[in-house]
């Protein structure tokens, strides 16, 4: 019974890997994306650390020391030297301290630092969203490349089979002395070239699979069974065909643009925080100390006070550091403006590519049928001696080109929709 069940399970067809499956695997396993997500975690930790600057800071320290000969107080009293007992007992000395400090006034240094870190975390999060979309586009391109390479290999194999059949027919006709031997040589030469094309197509398919597997974190030599694409996934298709509307949508929701905007503001806040470090810094403090001794009236002490620090001169370090952050912020702003222009170009290019691909699909579909019929007629005419083998070979080449054009148009149509979704920030 169990054996019959296992046989039935083995006999079930394996489900082909879909583009959605590929995206899920890549988002789970891709190391480059994992590195970006770790950077997001680091940025969030930086923001937490910046917020913690507002809280009191408690530090505890202690020490143990041993003297070769414990010191004592010696001073004149009434014309004689008074010598106190050793400051510590048994020549060893224990000390401990607890110190707490709370910043009261920092001229905006902490506030600006917190704002900068939070904006940095926001920029990292937006960069992660952008990395997800870039990865999904890369996986989709690799997925289509595998399908495209597979179709190309199938087309070359079909051409090889067709040419082998033609060589067999011409061989018979040469033996019957109905055509010249030169026809056979030309057919064999064309077959040899087709064999080379088949080998190159097989190599391209292997490379396409390796690239696809790498993005998914799979072994490079895995042979995936991919499902055919019949149009772009529903959630990636652009709902508005207006170019101006698509550009406006891209500017509003592209996460990489939002990332650069947040980074620009973060650097501006860092510059403000750096400048604030040059102003007076005031804090409240409390201290408890334990000092082992045999001379003082007690061994533990406590105190409270106000700390004040003002860096009056540092050789221009604070000023130059603030200027460095300010210049970096201006550079990020320039990059943001440049990215905005590139986004408009990306959307325009993706939109034009989609329009072209849609037009090519209808044209190439009809061309394949015409090429098939042209080849059939040419072979029939050649078999009865009404045309030359050159016409047949040309018809075979036209059929191969028509099939390739149709496949490329169909794949380009799917890929252009996905690229347009990425360009508008909709490839979530």
Task: Describe the structure using short key phrases.
428 residues, alpha+beta, Outer membrane efflux proteins (OEP), four-stranded antiparallel β-sheet, two-stranded antiparallel sheet, 9 helices
- CATH fold-level topology: Outer membrane efflux proteins (OEP)
What is the CA-based Rg, rounded? 39 Å
- Contiguous low-pLDDT stretches (5 residues minimum) are 4-13
| CA distance, first residue to last residue | 47 Å
The general outline is elongated
Helix content: 55-70%
* Biggest sheet strand line-up: 1-4-5-6
The CATH superfamily bears the name Outer membrane efflux proteins (OEP)
Q: Quick check: average pLDDT?
A: 87
CATH class category label? Mainly Alpha
The beta-strand count equals 6
Question: Secondary-structure element order, as H and E?
Answer: HHHEEEEHHHHEEHH
- What's the number of domains? 1
State the gist of this model.
The chain is an alpha+beta fold and 428 residues long. The chain is built from nine helices and six strands; from the N terminus they run αααββββααααββαα.
């Amino acid at each position: 019974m169990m054996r019959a069940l296992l046989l039935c399970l083995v006999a079930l067809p394996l489900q082909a890997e879909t583009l959605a499956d590929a995206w899920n695997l890549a988002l789970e396993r891709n190391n480059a994306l994992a590195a970006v997500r770790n950077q997001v975690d680091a940025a969030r930790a930086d923001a937490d650390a910046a917020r913690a600057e507002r809280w009191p800071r408690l530090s505890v320290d202690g020490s143990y020391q041993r003297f070769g000969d414990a010191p004592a107080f010696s001073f004149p009293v009434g014309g004689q030297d008074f010598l106190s007992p050793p400051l510590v007992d048994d020549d060893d000395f224990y000390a401990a301290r607890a110190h707490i400090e709370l910043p009261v006034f920092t001229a905006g240094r902490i506030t600006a630092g917190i704002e900068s870190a939070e904006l940095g975390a926001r920029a990292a999060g937006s960069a992660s969203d952008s990395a997800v979309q870039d990865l999904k586009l890369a996986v989709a391109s690799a997925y289509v490349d595998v399908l495209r390479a597979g179709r190309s290999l199938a087309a070359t194999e079909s051409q090889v089979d067709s040419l082998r059949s033609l060589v067999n027919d011409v061989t018979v006709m040469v033996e019957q002395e109905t055509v010249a031997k030169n026809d056979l040589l030309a057919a064999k030469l064309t077959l040899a070239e087709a064999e080379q094309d088949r080998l190159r197509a097989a190599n391209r398919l292997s490379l396409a699979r390796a690239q696809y597997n790498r993005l998914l974190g799979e072994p490079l030599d895995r042979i995936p069974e991919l499902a055919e694409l019949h149009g772009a996934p529903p959630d990636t298709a652009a709902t508005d065909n207006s170019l101006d509307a698509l550009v406006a949508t891209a500017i509003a929701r592209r996460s990489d643009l939002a990332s650069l905007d947040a980074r620009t503001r973060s650097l501006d806040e860092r510059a403000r925080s750096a400048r604030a470090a040059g102003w007076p810094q005031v804090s409240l403090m409390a201290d408890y100390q334990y000092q082992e001794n045999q001379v003082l009236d007690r061994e533990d002490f406590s105190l409270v006070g106000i700390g004040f620090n003002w860096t009056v001169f540092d050789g221009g370090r604070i000023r130059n550091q603030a200027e460095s952050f300010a210049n970096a912020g201006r550079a990020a702003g320039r990059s943001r403006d440049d990215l905005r222009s590139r986004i408009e170009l990306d959307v325009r290019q993706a939109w034009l590519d989609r329009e072209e691909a849609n037009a090519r699909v209808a044209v190439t579909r009809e061309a394949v049928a015409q090429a098939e019929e042209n080849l059939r007629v040419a072979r029939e005419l050649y078999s009865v001696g009404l045309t030359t083998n050159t016409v047949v070979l040309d018809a075979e080449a036209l059929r191969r080109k028509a099939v390739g054009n149709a496949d490329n148009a169909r794949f380009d149509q799917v890929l252009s929709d996905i690229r347009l979704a990425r360009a508008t920030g909709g490839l979530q």
